[in-house]
Amino acid sequence: MAAVLVISLSLFLIAVFFFLGVGSQSALKYFETRPQLIIYLKDEAKLQDIEMLQAKIQATGKVKEINYVSKEDALKLYKELFKDKPLLLEMVTANILPASLEISPHELSSVKDLAEELKKESIVEDFDYEEDVVSSLTEFVSALRKIGLGIAVFLLIISVLTVLVVLGMKISQRKTEIEILKLLGASSSYIRLPLYLEGIFYGLTSAFISWGLSYLAILYSTPFLINFLNGVPLFPVPVIFMLEVLGGLIVLGTIVGFLGSYFAVLRSARTMR
Amino acid sequence: MISFNKVTKKFGEITALENVSFKIDKGEFVFLTGPSGAGKTTIVKILLGEYLPSSGTVEVNGEEVNKIPKRKLFLWRRKLGVIFQDYKLFSDRTVEENVSLPLLIQKKSASEIKHSVDKILSLVGLTERAKLFPPQLAGGELQRTALARALITAPEILIADEPTGNLDPQTSAEMMKLFKEINEKGTTLLMATHNKTIVDSFKTRVIELKKGQVVRDEKEGKYHKN
């Protein structure tokens, strides 16, 4: 029971870190696919100038995609964005909204340089970029991976040690029984197999418990997270993904249970010929 | 069949056996006698492969027991029938479960196990007690359960370490009658004992140990030297 509790808790925490990691990675990808640099163009900018600027930007080789958003397109976007707030729509016409270029660079790091370069262009009014959001998220994902991996390794070691101690105590209690079986001609596998199976059973049971708990936690927090991560398409979590997580937890639980029982058996095997 | 050649066993400073040599032929009934601490159990444990001799060799049917690797020891132990001084029965298993254990370990079929258990329990007179647990049995019945378990694999050699140590004289005599019948069917029997009455009532070979040394080996011996 103690072993199942400890392994379940460890696997649950590992699953939580895994979800955080995968979620952050997906959020990062989402932000990366959005235009990171928006160039607002002056009202007097002619279509010919805009096309020249587009060509110039493409020529830098730093850009993956450029979209021209005309004043009319901007108005459509604005109306879509504030369709629930008619007051904000009343006075707005296409004329007061700037045309813009939405730029997605290949490398996130080039956003700032690109913005500085384009600032000098005569038809550029202003610009806006999301470098801060994406770079912060990149740093967060990287830190999360390192910390998560460290904590996961620590928890797995604790789990293996718990199985080792629990099964070690069981072996001690059954020492006489094991001795008798050996004297009656029982092979090592005959004696060890039930212990290995017991360790694996602990791991498997814990995998299912931790998976159930983590699934419940995700289902419970989905409405809140959908609101919190406005627009980031992470939810609802696909069932296939959760089944993959279950597979991973089963593998991890089995390894933990087997290693714990293996070391427990190894420790006790030294005491008797 | 069994051959001890200049076997010495030391536990640190303590010498349990010193230069012990003897041979036992197939079908013999041999008493290993001597006071407590003389080295009888050490000989049994060396035969079982529990202890390795400090020097000397132990051969059984030409196979050097002390050279059997640990991983193959179980195969050697399956060839022996052993009755332990403290019986070593599982108190949470019934008589028939205890007796069937060596066959279960050897992965015999359920029908084979049932047939053998019924036969052996009938031989030792425990058919009526088959479903009882060891704590529900009398001393003689425990001993017969241990004997049945030792015989269930039809071993060529039966080793008994103080088998009558905890029994009253009448039960001891009944047990000895059983041992004699088993020996007459061809099983080699090595019995460690310090039960004078039993040894004296049998006209058979006696190997006497004292302080780890063989002090007497007589073909038809008594407990004490004539």
UniProtKB/TrEMBL annotation, chain B:
ABC transporter domain: residues covered: 2-226
Its annotated compartments are: Cell membrane
The Gene Ontology terms for molecular function here are: ATP binding; ATP hydrolysis activity; transmembrane transporter activity
Which PROSITE patterns does the record cross-reference, listed alphabetically? ABC_TRANSPORTER_2
One GO cellular component, as annotated: plasma membrane
For whether the record's keyword set contains Repeat, the answer is no
The membrane topology term of the UniProt record is: Peripheral membrane protein
One matching Pfam family is: ABC_tran
Gene3D superfamilies in the cross-refs: P-loop containing nucleotide triphosphate hydrolases
By its UniProt entry, which InterPro entries does this protein fall under?
A: AAA+_ATPase (IPR003593), ABC_transporter-like_ATP-bd (IPR003439), ABC_transpr_LolD-like (IPR015854), Cell_div_FtsE (IPR005286), P-loop_NTPase (IPR027417)
GO biological process terms, semicolon-separated? cell division
For this UniProt record, the keywords arranged alphabetically read as follows: ATP-binding, Cell cycle, Cell division, Cell membrane, Membrane, Nucleotide-binding
- Main subcellular localization, coarse class? membrane
Summarize the subunit comment: Homodimer. Forms a membrane-associated complex with FtsX.
Q: Which family does it belong to?
A: Belongs to the ABC transporter superfamily.
Q: What does this protein do?
A: Part of the ABC transporter FtsEX involved in cellular division.
Q: Mind telling me what this protein is named?
A: Cell division ATP-binding protein FtsE
**What would be the name of the gene that encodes this protein?**
ftsE
